Amino acid sequence: MIRRGTGLWFATPALAVIAVFFFLPVAGALVLGFTDFDIYAIADLRNVRFVGLRNFQELLATPLFWRALGNTLYFAVVGVPLSMAASVGAALLLNSPLARLKSFYRTVLFAPVVTTLVAVALIWRYLLHTRYGLLNYGLGLAGISPIDWLGNPTTALPAIILFSVWKNFGYNMVIVLVALQQIPEDLYEAASLDGASAWQQFRHVTLPSLRPTLAFVGILTLAAYFQLFAEPYVMTQGGPAQSTLSILYFMYDEGFKWWNLGRASAVAFVLFLMMFAVTGFNAWLAQRRAA
Amino acid sequence: MNRRTRSIAVNGALALVALVTAFPLLWMVSASLMPAGMSANFPPPLWTTHPTLVHYRELFAHAGFGRHFVNSALIASGATLLALTLNVMAGYAFAKLDFPGRDRLHRVLVAGLVIPAQVAMLPLFLELKSIGLVDTLAGVLVPSLAGIFSIFLVRQAALSIPDELLDAARIDGASEWTIYRRIVLPLLTPMLVTLAVFTFLGAWNDFLWPLIILNDDDRYTLPVALASLSREHVQDSELMMAGSVVTVLPVLALFLGLQRYYLQGLMAGAVKG
Question: How high is the ipTM of this complex?
Answer without folding.
Answer: 0.93
